[in-house]
Amino acid sequence: SKRLLLSEKDLKCEFDYKTSSIKVSAFTSNLDFPDDVYLEYKMLEETEWKNFSENSNQLELTGLSPGNYTLFFRFSSADGISHSEERKIDIHISPPWHKTLIFRLFA
């Protein structure tokens, strides 16, 4: 399992084919957030925002296959008000060498 730390900037991450799970951790230095603010996320293809586990700043993505994934996240309150800009993480998990286009072209 690989770890990613959410930051104030969008991230691009690359992993090899052995990576099937990724842990994402989020922290904020902004002490002006009310107590009822929580972290939400969604994948690119999804329309609904989901909450990180209650009382947790970590999300674990499991069962990942080689390919491209985009994860969006934001801080929101229970009343649906967003307290931050959306950020994203572009994740690329490379296939094993024998499944790459170059290998298939020359095989």
Write the layout of secondary structure elements.
Blueprint: E1 2-5, E2 11-15, E3 22-25, E4 37-43, E5 50-51, E6 58-61, E7 67-77, E8 87-93, H1 101-106
Parallel strand pairs: 1-3, 2-8
Antiparallel strand pairs: 3-6, 4-5, 4-7, 7-8
Question: How would you describe what is shown here?
Answer:
This protein is mainly β and 107 residues long. Helix content is 6%, strand content 41%. It contains one helix and eight strands; from the N terminus they run E-E-E-E-E-E-E-E-H. It has one helix at 101-106; strands at residues 2-5, 11-15, 22-25, 37-43, 50-51, 58-61, 67-77, 87-93. The strands form two sheets. It has a five-stranded mixed β-sheet with strand order 2-8-7-4-5, with no helix packed on it. Strands 1-3-6 form a three-stranded mixed β-sheet, with no helix packed on it. A hairpin with a 6-residue loop joins strand 4 (37-43) and strand 5 (50-51). The protein is elongated, with a radius of gyration of 16 Å.
Helix content: under 10%
Number of strands: 8
Cα end-to-end separation: 32 Å
Number of helices: 1
Q: What's the alpha carbon Rg, rounded to whole Å? A: 16 Å
Poorly predicted regions are none
Gross morphology:
elongated
Strand order within the widest beta sheet: 2-8-7-4-5
| Series of H and E elements | EEEEEEEEH
Strand count, sense and barrel status of the largest sheet are: 5 strands, mixed
Mean pLDDT across the residues is: 79
Amount of beta strand: 35-45%
Derived structural class: mainly beta
